[in-house]
Amino acid sequence: MAHMKCGYRRICRASLIWLLIPAMLVGCDRKNRDAASHHPSTSQHEITSSAEPRNSSGGDEPGITIEVPIEVGGDSDNSKQDSGSDNSERDSGSDNSERDSGSEQNSEAEEPEPDPTEDAFRSVSAGDCLPIYRTGYSDDWSQPKPPEPVSCRGNYAGLFYVTRTGGSGLICPNGRAEDSWRYYSAMSRQTTTLCLRRIWVKNYCVLAIDSGNQSLSFGLSTAVGCNADRVPKPYNRIMVVSDVYRAPPDAHVGYCKKNQYDNRMYWMVLVSGGEDMVCFTDPNT
Fold this sequence. Notes:
This protein is an alpha+beta fold and 285 residues long. The protein has three helices and eleven strands; from the N terminus they run αββααβββββββββ. The strands form three sheets. Strands 8-7-9-11-10 form a five-stranded antiparallel β-sheet, with no helix packed on it. Strands 3-4-6-5 form a four-stranded antiparallel β-sheet, covered by helices on one side.
């Protein structure tokens, strides 16, 4: 009988424990819900830190909440993306600047290089006198580009007065002892033209073509040493300027003689539109 009582008490105790467990669980669940109700919910982009002080008596007081916005991962990524965009814009601007700078350099590189010969031609003005002449070889002049002007009363083997200057469309007079000097620049693709008229100086020699029968053709723009051993083809003779006169109305070769005892052979050419008379003779006579 005692054994039965003891077993009954154990059963009673076990039953009591199983009855208390649900009550304890309910109490814990209620405390959890109460605790959760004191904390505000947080959004995806904002986390708040809450401080809930308690008094010494253990009673609850209203909590003091300090909201501190904290950027979460999504915003941070956006910020990085924005920063990247800014960098991209800055980089893009830098690239544009570099491209602009390159364009300026290319523009400078595309500008035509200076042409000293063209500059020399363009520096010549109408009224200048140039110490130049044709050599007789092809269309060559004595200098590759116009030299500095000299006095129009100078003593030179070749001396030309500049009557006009212009471009490729300029047409120069083609009378006797008149000539033109043209230069085309590969740099600027422009042509400069000088119209010239020879100023005759005594005692200098020119090239001539002797066709026989005392018929001579003069290279009126040429000059040559009076004692030269050879002459360029088609020229075959050297003649010297003996005198230059104002042409009389009845100009003829007889006016070239120095006096009545002068037996040398002379040739005469009217130049400057017939206003001047140039006399030539053989320098060896």
